Here is the input.
Amino acid sequence: MRQILLASSIGLIVALFGTPLAIRLLVRRGYGQLIRDDGPTSHHTKRGTPTMGGGVIIVGTLLGYAGAHLVTWRPVTVSGLLVLFLMAGLGFVGFLDDYIKVAKQRSLGLRAWAKLTGQMLVAVTFAVLAMNFPDGQGSTPASTEISFIRDTGIVLGAVFFVVWAYIMIAGTSNGVNLTDGLDGLATGTSVMVFGSYVLIGIWQFSQNCAREVATTNCYEVRDPLDLAVVAAAIMGACFGFLWWNASPAKIFMGDTGSLALGGALAGLAILSRTELLLILVGGLFVLIALSVIVQVGFFKLTRKRIFRMAPLQHHFELVGWGEVTIVIRFWIIAGLLVALGLGVFYAEWVTGAGT
Here is the structure.
């Protein structure tokens, strides 16, 4: 467990003390956030705030993971490296998007097709690699079955698994991206969600089928403890970044951070066999993404809007709620959904539903 403490601590320290350095560098280069004219007018005061801060979260995560393994002299695992690859790959796509915004001084970065293509290349590469590299027992990092708390028995096969993985990765990364609209909202929510995956990984390790003390209700997850180390490094990095990202934000994570965090979250869910549980654990991201889907769909059908503005947090801004009030209340909702997801996860083990 020293690895988990080390990973989270190193990630926290790197992000906490590295973010102000990033702020000064970004300000010097003039890499400030552009604000869309069709958004809430209160956001215009944020114009020029440094963006692309998600790079600090990625660096903090990578150093946290590497440092934990170097100090404990434990070998890295394929599962851990795959999640980090997914995080860094999508972070690079987000960085290109952010860079184009600030370099060309426009509120839209990469063209939609280019952004989706980048996400697809990274997601498909991750999915294909996750079906390979079997260990001594023939277990690969990912399973081609759909999972809830463990594999459900619904086999997709290799091709449909890649499609399913892409849908999950694209949906989750865009869900975090849509949530990142208010100071600290996505970062604080990510702390709780990744924290839950630290607990899930630890529990799956203690009840893993590969251990001598395995029970009849054990988990067939390839590298659960190392997945917990990755989640801990991300959680710590998000904690450190939140110090500077909380209202009034001194820096934004940008698409660099939101796509990276969403990708890492999907990767953890896929490799820990908790794909559908992610709907509960990451429930706030799901609700905010659904608000956009419902708004767009309803408007196309009726030419009317359900919300004053989507994503959902901007609706409450236009209703009159203060930004800090919205963020705190959404954090409460996120925390309750995380607790519900963990409760369902533990209840399934207690009742022996997986046997």
User: Anything to note?
Assistant: The first helix runs from residue 2 to 29. The first strand starts at residue 145 and ends at 147. Strands lie at 145-147, 151-155.
